[in-house]
Amino acid sequence: MARCVAVSLAVCSITILGAQAPATPTLILHNARIYTVDARHTIADAVAIAGDRIARVGTEAEILGLKGPSTRLVDVRGATIVPGLHDAHGHVVGLGASLQDIDLKGTRSFEEVVGRVRRHVASARAGEWIVGRGWDQNDWPERDWPTHDLLSAAAPDNPVYLTRVDGHAGLANRRAMDTAGLGRSTANPPGGRILRSADGQPTGVVIDGAQSLITSAIPRIGREQLEDQIRLADRELRRVGITTVHDAGADGETVDAYKRLIEAGTIKTRLYVMLRGTLRELAPFFARGPLTDFSRHRLAVRAIKIYADGALGSRGAALLEPYSDEPTTSGLLTTPPEEVYAQTVAAAKAGFQVGIHAIGDRANRQVMDLFERVQKEVPGSRSLRMRIEHAQILDAAEIPRFARLGVIASMQPTHATSDMPWAAARIGNARVEEGAYVWRKLLDSGAVIASGSDFPVEDVNPLLGFYAAITRQDAAGNPPGGWTARQRMTREEALASFTRQAAYAAHAETLTGTIEAGKLADMVVLSSDIMRVSPRDILTTTVRMTIVGGETVYQSP
Question: Rounded to two decimals, what is the model's pTM?
């Protein structure tokens, strides 16, 4: 295998990769405004693609001069082209499942949630499990946790389990609790919490580690349904311009399904997989070593995902000080620290990147301490590019440690704008100002931010994340001036976080993330110039074309 010294790595990689492509362009996109997102922030007029690679980027005259007899010319009529967008933290199967299950996003009351379930029950078989996702009690007039009573009355003969929007809590009806054996005598499991009424009976709400008490009773989906969910997700990802997903937590069965669908040519989105499981379940993958390239860079399996804590919305994020609106708790450490350490060390020794979910400031501190320890114990482990997934609430002492330890902050801009209506209630104004979603402080400290959405927790559309990153406002433009507006990103930083920086976080910076000669021809044609239009116009910008490896995998009607 060809090798290059560090100083010439990028040039050498491009030369090697470019040599694989045919000399004559197979496709030219021209009459465009192309944001290459390269180191010089080059803006070009046209791009030539040869096979699955970018052959050349430049002026209209330069690129049209390369046209051969079989070259396909596409005049994009002044449209904007950006590199293929990465989502640095999403859940592919979860997205597909959300397109099959009851969608509870945007429900404005618990009664509306129950109404949607009731309509579904009307066509369900007795005893059939009914599942849904997306409710958020913070959107309801009464922000208290729901109880199962109305849900149990609406579906007495069907077990029902409804996952909260963040995936860190759920609500079960009476039939589901009875089926799963959850009752008054059931103890809180490690890293989990069962909410109870005054008489000690479960209310139906289970948080973090307690969710498995219910979900373990839900029949596993079969191979056919799993593949259907992946296909549904892939279709949606192409529609919104996502060409690569960092799949944050997959098992071996899902990886096998990805391979089958990729080999069949059924799915087109590139997948960077983080495995999730116990140390025993991960051991066979560690023994085989990382999969860095399956089917011409369609799939890589070279990272693992670990949960350190829960979510802020369900008060499961582990905090250094108690919750302002529930002083009896400081959140949950969902995986025992010794298990987090054991998995991290084993992964590092096997050459796997580690991404650890940490939302609260206590969890982030523990993870940062762990990464610093492992970097000392495992030579070369820093080069694996350890990641903290979410990094939402940070103590001031942790912020400079990202750059110092080379830890990537894998963050989701729309989490900030979704959480802003109630974040201060959870942690108080002082902690919000100091360390909540502090993109500017991290960037100014030299940290790398890779952006995503955490779909299906948030909307899969990356342009919504771009908008949130530069405005810190919701879709209605609130609050005026932006929420803790000093933490905004510039447009250049936001675009880089969804392209070049996210590619770096996936060890793919020599392949994707910018529009440069020699790289894979992944790019998106947009209906408006997101780098120059008003922020409000970003929200109505659509994808005209999604191109992956030189192939048009989506084209708007």
Answer: 0.89
